[in-house]
Amino acid sequence: MSVIKPLSDIGFKIQDRRKRSDVPTLAIVRGSAASEKTLSGGEALMLETKPKWMTYAEMAETLTRPQLPRNIHKSTERLVFCYQFYKVRNDWWHLSETEREEGKREFLELLSTFDQWLIIRTYSTLGLKATTDFLLWLIAKEMKGIELFTAALQHTFVGRYLDRPYTYLTLTRPSIYLRHSSRQQETRVQQSESQQEQEFTGEAPYFFIYPFTKTHEWYQLPYEQRREMMLEHFRIGNQFPTVRTYTSYSIGLDDYEFVVAFEADDPNEFQECVMRLREAKARPYTLVDTPLWTCLRRSPEELVKLVL
Questions:
Q1: How far from the centroid of its chain's Cα atoms is residue 288's Cα?
Q2: Homologous superfamily, domain 177-295
Q3: Are 237 and 272 a contacting pair, CB within 8 Å?
């Protein structure tokens, strides 16, 4: 018999109650009751073994948490955006209620831990898209943060029951079309820029994103012509002040060229905005702008109650 002290104020105990040979169940022992406990030799060995995902959390300790700038259309700081869409496998619902509750607690602990080094926004797509159940929007200063979070999630109990059918990777950069090139246009551009001083927080109740790619013909147009069409695009969007938007760049990183994200208070207003933008002069130069995702902002605690 031996007395095992926890690695931290939270003790982790792995219990091997396998439904399948490759899927262990993780039970999380919380609170002061786990501070000291007399265990058998086999139990002591299990308690001494920390969850694998914590190894990746320790590797992330050198990372610096980014701060989302008020206006990311103008910010010169380059951030990594990663939109990860997940689907819960049917096998998850074959587990006992106790096993699922244990997995939920570990998942929340993972999100809380990595929130020290990443900005993590959680959204539900449950019932809104057949192929996914939820979205994790990850914001990091470097791609290593995305890599370590994903590795950690895959080594959690819940991670064994998740598929990730869609991932979009982008970088932020200032829009080249908000720069003015002549004094005659300076006043108009400054007005457009001032209207872009909208705060983009990811906290609005509705979140819409889609990847898109421009046609080859678009890039053959003179810069001033492209810029004029994009300023029209901005002016239309600014007529809907409760719809806040940002385009990040996946050129050279992913299959699409851009990912555009919108946050809105009202889906009707967002739909009206999109319908108006369909009439803009730049529209014919869009090659692909699907799939489109409608997401509902949910706290991590709300999310696990809904989807897990």
A1: 22
A2: Apc35880; domain 1 (3.30.70.1030)
A3: no
Least reliable range by pLDDT among 25-39, 54-68, 268-282: 25-39
With tokens 């029209």, the residue in question is: 232
Query: CB neighbours of 7 closer than 8 A, spacing ≥ 6?
Result: 50
How do beta strands 11-20 and 23-29 pair?
antiparallel
| Token pair 């590797």: residue | 59
Token code pair at residue 39 = 């265990």
If you search the block for the tokens 């920390």, which residue do you land on? 50
Residue owning tokens 């009206």: 272
Could you read off the pLDDT of 100-154 as tens digits, one per residue?
999 999 999 999 999 999 999 999 999 999 999 999 999 999 999 999 999 999 9
pTM of structure: 0.80
Helical axes 267-277 vs 223-237, angle rounded to 10°? 150
**By the 8 A CB rule, do 56 and 155 touch?**
yes
Q: Which CATH number is 56-171+297-307 given? A: 3.30.70.1030
Read off the pLDDT band of 75 (50, 70, 90): low
